[in-house]
Amino acid sequence: MxxxxxxxxxxxxxxxxxxxxxxxxxxxxxxxxxxxAGRKIKKVLKNRTQINLFFEESTRTSxxxxxxxxxxxxxxxxxxTSSSSIKKGETLIDTAMTLNAMRPSVLVIRHASSGAAALLxxxxxxxxxxxxxxxxxxxxxxxLDALTIRRRKGRIAGLTVAICGDILHxxxxxxxxxxxxxxxxxxxxxxxxxxxxVAVERLGVDVYTDMRSGLEDVDIVMMLxxxxxxxxxxxxxxxxxxxxxxxxxxEKLAAAKPDALIMHPGxxxxxxxxxxxxxxxIDRSAIREQVETGVxxxxxxxxxxxxxxxxxxxx
Length: 315
Ligand code: NCD
Prior knowledge:
The chain has helices at about 20-35, 60-70, 90-100, 115-125, 140-155, 170-180, 210-215, 240-245, 250-255, 275-280, 285-315, and strands at about 50-55, 75-80, 105-110, 125-135, 160-165, 185-190, 205-210, 220-225, 260-265. By secondary structure, the chain is of the alpha/beta class. Bound molecules: N-carbamoyl-L-aspartate (NCD).
């Protein structure tokens, strides 16, 4: 049962129940519709403070969390780690305790270490939302991807989704694998052997190292960036060779279903993992739509953790 009083924290998709995920998707969908129609949005985060604590670079995730909070009436504070005490060597926990003393309602955190969001949630009183922790999870990305798919295809159960590229370093891949499996999709991962985690099949995926066979008859093609900032050493011979074998272009895409949807969490490296023509194909690419859906889904997540807090405060 999804709790009417929302979720305490959003740390990862692993372990979430289908109904909890669907409740967030439904709420995100309704925020998206209301916003598009120019209808009034209830300021459910009025008098609440949301602190965005980004220890890693971000464009769309941090902007959309800020917008989402503001659309719901929150006071939003963005901590830029390059100009804060973190630069002076303060630890994550000390920073968190300082912020906690200011009594925010929500901390949105992005950090290079897997497990950072979970650790933080044990130390603070407020709700914690994981905006990406190392290679571990990026739950709001998986939720926005799922909502984009559901809106375009009308369902998730029964679809075949190929997640292609740098699976090894990708928190987006991990969160999506958990979510799509929980909602009944069939998940494939397609990557060179060097970019696949050990025993990845244990996550419940079919593994392909050849793009054309991996894309055969799929409904969704989800492309990932080569996350060179997480690589020590060379994982691919050269970007050019990588594109030749694993870059999505019209020819490789022809193996997928004719109405297959193209997705990418961004930032895209055109000419490395995806060809410009395919990325900009207005009929088949959902990449822009993913960004719009991201704001709505993050509104749903903020709403959910704050209604949980409200229920606790009302006790
Ligand atoms: C992703 C991330 O940060 O994990 N980007 C994002 O949130 N839009 C994927 C990436 O960086 O490649």
